[in-house]
Amino acid sequence: MLRKIGRLFLIKNRFEAFAVIYALALGAVERGQAYLTRFPGFGGKLLFLATTCAVFMAGAKILDCLRFEQARAAQKAAEAEPPEGNTA
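^ thats the sequence. predicted structure below, dont judge the formating
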């Protein structure tokens, strides 16, 4: 039962990855706007920039990991198949 619930929190394809990145970006912009009102001037703008840059870095890592996991799954599937030319 826990395994089924745990599968809901896995990112399986690029669409799900972009949905997660979009949600992170919405939260970061909301937090950045709060920084702009709380810290007017250069400090607030710098904090706003930091929150949005964090989303870019996290999004790149999510997409890289997704590509790596898909390549690893394809490699395991290729290793599991018997070679074509040998039929004994």
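The chain has a mean pLDDT of 90.
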